[in-house]
Design goal:
Elements lengths: L3 E2 L2 H23 L4 E7 L3 H16 L3 E7 L5 H12 L6 E4 L9 H7 L11 H9 L7 H14 L6 E5 L6 H10 L3 E5 L6 H5 L4 E4 L17 E4 L3 E2 L11 E2 L4 H4 L5 E2 L6 H20 L9
The structure holds 5,10-Methenyltetrahydrofolate (GUE).
C-alpha cells in the first residue's frame, strides 16, 4: 500500500487563484486594494525568505503589500508605535508581525497591541477566545489550512479519532478546537504524553506539530490513517552540501506504507499557510469596508 500524497502546494495555488479573483472584485467595489502589512524585526535568514514569499503572493493576489523591515535592536516602544500606526491606517486590512521576535521584545504585548479586526494571524487573545467559544474571528492560518486539506480529503469528520501532537498556541491548540468544532474526537498529545505511539495509533487523523524531524514512525500509525505533517525541520547538511534537507515531523517514506494519505514536506502544509493568510486578509478587508464576505472565500 502506498499513501496518496496530499498536494498542499496545488491546493494552495487554487486557493490563491480564488482569493485573487475576489480581491480584484473587492478593489472594484471598495475603490482600493485589500492591504496586508508584514513587519519583520531583525535579519533572521529564514524569516527574510518567508516575508519575501508573502510579499510576492500578496501582490500576485491583487492585494497591496506593505513591508516593514526593522533592525534587530528596534525597541518594543518603536515596534508598538508602528503597530499603532498600522491599526489606524485605512489601507491596511491585515497586520502580521513575523515571529519569533528578538529576545528583548515581549511577543505577547506586541500581539496584544494589534487590532483584533486586523489580526489575520489569529494570534490575539480576542481571536483565540472567539475560536474557543465558537464566535467568528480570525483563525490561525496553519491550522485552518490543515482543516481545508482534511475536509477536502475526508468530507465529514464526525466521530473520527483525531490526535494532535503538539500544544502550541499557534498550531496545536487551535487545530484541536477546529477538529472539535467539526465533531471529531480529539486528543492533544505532547512531549509528556505517556506511550505516545499507542495514543497516535488510535488516530484516524494525525496532525503532527512537534518540531522534531521524522519523529513519527510507521509503526505509530493505524492502517489507513490520514496524516497532516506541520513540521518543517532542516536536517544538518550532508558532507558536500551547503544546506540540509527539509523534512517534516513524520518519517514520510515509511509512513506512506501505512497511511491512506499524507502531506509531504515541503509542498504540504507550508504553502497553505500563506494562501490562508491572503484569504484571512481579504476577509478582513470585506469586514473593514462593510462588504459581505463571499461564502466560498
Ligand atoms: N506572525 C507569523 N505568522 C506566520 O504565519 C509565521 C511566522 N510569524 N513566523 C514564521 C512561520 C513560518 N511560516 C511558514 C510559512 C510558509 C512556509 C512554506 O511555504 N513552506 C514551503 C517551503 C519551505 C522552504 O522551502 O523553505 C513548504 O513547506 O513547502 C513555511 C513556513 C509562517 N510563519
Amino acid at each position: 500500500m502506498s499513501a496518496t500524497r496530499i498536494d498542499g502546494k496545488a491546493f494552495a495555488a487554487r486557493l490563491r487563484e480564488r482569493v485573487g479573483e475576489y480581491a480584484a472584485r473587492f478593489a472594484e467595489a471598495a475603490g482600493r486594494r485589500a492591504g496586508l502589512a508584514v513587519v519583520l524585526v531583525g535579519d533572521d535568514a529564514a524569516s527574510q525568505v518567508y516575508v519575501g514569499a508573502k510579499n510576492k503572493a500578496t501582490l500576485a493576489a491583487n492585494m497591496a503589500s506593505f513591508e516593514h523591515r526593522l533592525p534587530a535592536d528596534t525597541s518594543a516602544a518603536a515596534l508598538l508605535a508602528l503597530v499603532e500606526r498600522l491599526n489606524n491606517d485605512d489601507n491596511v486590512d491585515g497586520i502580521l508581525v513575523q515571529l519569533p521576535l528578538p529576545d528583548h521584545i515581549d511577543e505577547q504585548s506586541i500581539i496584544a497591541a494589534i487590532s483584533p479586526e486586523k489580526d489575520v494571524d489569529g494570534f490575539h487573545v480576542i481571536n483565540a477566545g472567539r475560536l474557543s467559544v465558537g464566535q467568528s474571528g480570525f483563525v490561525p492560518c496553519t491550522p485552518l489550512g490543515c482543516m481545508m486539506l482534511l475536509t477536502d480529503r475526508l468530507g465529514d469528520l464526525s466521530g473520527l479519532e483525531a490526535v494532535v501532537i503538539g500544544r502550541s498556541n499557534i498550531v496545536g491548540k487551535p487545530m484541536a478546537q477546529l477538529l472539535l468544532d467539526a465533531n471529531a474526537t480529539v486528543t492533544i498529545a505532547h512531549s509528556r504524553t505517556k506511550d505516545l505511539a499507542a495514543v497516535v495509533r488510535r488516530a484516524d487523523i494525525v496532525v503532527a506539530a512537534v518540531g522534531r524531524p521524522e519523529m513519527i514512525r510507521k509503526d505509530w500509525l493505524k492502517d489507513g490513517a490520514t496524516v497532516i505533517d506541520v513540521g518543517i525541520n532542516r536536517l544538518p547538511p550532508e558532507p558536500g552540501q551547503d544546506k540540509g534537507k527539509l523534512v517534516g515531523d513524520v518519517a514520510f517514506d515509511e509512513a506512506s506504507e501505512v497511511a491512506a494519505a499524507i502531506t509531504p514536506v515541503p509542498g504540504g502544509v507550508g504553502p497553505m499557510t500563506i494562501a490562508v493568510l491572503l484569504r484571512n486578509t481579504l476577509v478582513a478587508a470585506h469586514r473593514n469596508a462593510g462588504l459581505d464576505v463571499p461564502d466560498d472565500l
